[in-house]
Specification:
It is a single chain. The chain has 364 residues and is α/β, with parallel strands linked by helices. It folds into 2 domains: 7-192, Rossmann fold (3-Layer(aba) Sandwich), CATH 3.40.50; 205-229 and 267-323 and 355-363, UDP-galactose 4-epimerase, domain 1. Helices cover 34% and strands 18% of the residues. The chain contains 9 helices and 15 strands. The strands form 4 sheets. The protein has a 7-stranded parallel β-sheet, with helices on both faces. A 4-stranded mixed β-sheet has the order 8-15-14-13, covered by helices on one side. The protein has a two-stranded parallel sheet with strand order 7-10. Helix 2 packs parallel to helix 4 and helix 4 (102-122) runs parallel beside helix 5 (164-183). The chain is globular. The termini are far apart. Bound molecules: NADPH dihydro-nicotinamide-adenine-dinucleotide phosphate and guanosine-5'-diphosphate-rhamnose. Guanosine-5'-diphosphate-rhamnose binds at residues 93, 95-96, 136-138, 193-194, 203-205, 208, 226-228, 231, 233, 267, 318, 320, 323.
Length: 364
């Protein structure tokens, strides 16, 4: 007996999560359609390996030009694709940059979500199309008093966003929930805590650190400049987290879920773990904008680094006008999804540093 092939539409397909999700859905036998922005140069590096020649007989992966700020093209693409599932991952996703372009972020990350939901309604697809909205732990804002009794943020913790990004995403969260309740659309929020990978954008802190670890180890860079080393994040692996997104849309009842590891780590410690992966040990000294890290040992004979070299300095230009100090998520409800992450932080750091060393060695 043949079952009908499922069709998924993914916004943000060229991003970190979009690329892992597309791989997962193709593996599961979906036909995958992605929305890609027009850019003056190619921006498909993360998905080039799964791209299929459009002249082949049965094409399972197709890209459409589009933008979340343009409802006409969102409606047209959804009409053409008739998706069973939409994953709305498209966003201006950088918290610090959102302070520089707040109106744009509101348009893409907030109203963009509304455009998807409205398109589904306008096209009469409420009963056919399931929608995943990429919500975020930034909604919580890291206020200590809003954690639950056990010290975590969960699905019932109050929101207090601390950036234009967080405020735009809170609109996306509530409009998704509202359309679920008002129109009985299967629409869910995944409240995902930070997730990283070798495909993470190079201006997010983890990738900035692993890239610099590789560059410093190979003698291509002297020092890494960072902002606030005192914040804490609950970091998972993007490959695990896209599996949770898919599972959220396969349940009988549409609900919102926190996806997290339940472990939080200081930025400073991520720096330490990253350099340790390359055999470089560090000692931190000083406080806040005067804090630095020096090499105390170099256990890899391949790298000729002097003991005492300062490899990390704080540069306040990377501070945010309002910071989210601490994020730690309670993954209890996600167990209902049968979801279990394969990576821990050590495995994540190992993979990221190895990948960045390989990239830089290839360039050498
Ligand atoms: P990325 O920044 O790697 O990818 C964002 C994607 O959105 C890119 O494909 C980008 O396209 C696209 N995009 C940006 N602006 C627009 C627009 N105006 N119209 C259409 N597409 C647009 O983010 P991630 O993959 O890390 O995150 C995926 C989603 O999950 C985002 O919504 C993010 O806010 C959210 N999220 C991420 C978390 C994380 O830790 N990674 C945690 C919680 C939520 P282009 O390549 O052209 O720039
Ligand atoms: P975040 O991720 O803001 O949590 O948003 P990011 O990696 O940018 O920052 C994490 C923490 O590190 C501190 N930090 C620095 N950050 C950056 N980018 N660059 C630096 O040099 C630096 N130095 C210190 C930050 O102040 C912050 O405290 C990510 C994004 O993926 C969002 O889209 C997503 O919603 C959330 O994670 C969950």
């Amino acid at each position: 007996m043949s079952t009908k092939q499922k069709v998924a539409l993914v916004t943000g397909i060229t991003g970190q999560d979009g690329s892992y999700l597309a791989e997962l859905l193709l593996e599961k036998g979906y036909q995958v359609h992605g929305v890609k922005r027009r850019a003056s140069s190619f921006n498909t590096q993360r998905i080039d390996h799964i791209y299929q020649d459009q002249h082949e007989n049965h094409v399972n992966f197709k890209l459409h030009y589009g933008d979340l700020t343009d409802s006409t093209n969102i409606i047209r693409i959804i009409q053409e694709v008739q998706p069973d599932e939409i994953y709305n991952l498209g966003a201006m996703s950088h918290v610090k940059v959102s302070f520089d372009s707040p109106e744009y972020v509101a348009n893409v990350d907030g109203i963009g979500t509304l455009r998807i939901l409205e398109a589904v309604r306008i096209l009469g697809l409420e009963k056919k199309t399931r929608i995943y909205q990429a919500s975020t732990s930034e909604l919580y804002g890291g206020l200590a008093e809003n954690k639950n009794a056990a010290g975590f943020y969960d699905e019932n913790s109050p929101f207090y966003p601390r950036s234009p990004y967080g405020v735009a995403k809170i609109y996306g969260f509530w409009i998704t929930k509202n359309y679920r309740e008002a129109y009985d659309i299967y629409a869910c929020n995944g409240i995902l805590f930070n997730h990283e990978s070798p495909r993470r954008g190079e201006t997010f802190v983890t990738r900035k650190i692993t890239m610099a670890t590789a560059a410093i180890a190979l003698g291509k860079q002297d020092c890494l400049y960072l902002g606030n080393l005192n914040s804490q994040r609950d970091w998972g692996h993007a490959k695990d987290y896209v599996e949770a997104m898919w599972r959220i849309l396969q349940q009988d009842v549409a609900e919102d879920y926190v996806i997290a590891t339940g472990v939080t780590t200081y930025i400073r410690d991520f720096v330490r773990y990253s350099f340790a992966e390359a055999g470089i040990e560090l000692a931190f000294e000083g406080e806040n904008e005067n804090e630095i890290a020096k090499i105390t040992a170099c256990n890899n004979p391949e790298y000729q680094l002097p003991i005492g070299q300062v490899v990390v300095r704080v540069d306040p230009q990377y501070y945010r006008p309002t910071e989210v100090d601490l994020l730690i998520g309670d993954p209890s409800k996600s167990k209902k999804l049968g979801w279990k992450p394969q990576y821990d932080l050590a495995g994540l750091v190992k993979e990221m540093v190895a990948s960045d060393l390989e990239i830089l060695k290839r360039l050498r």
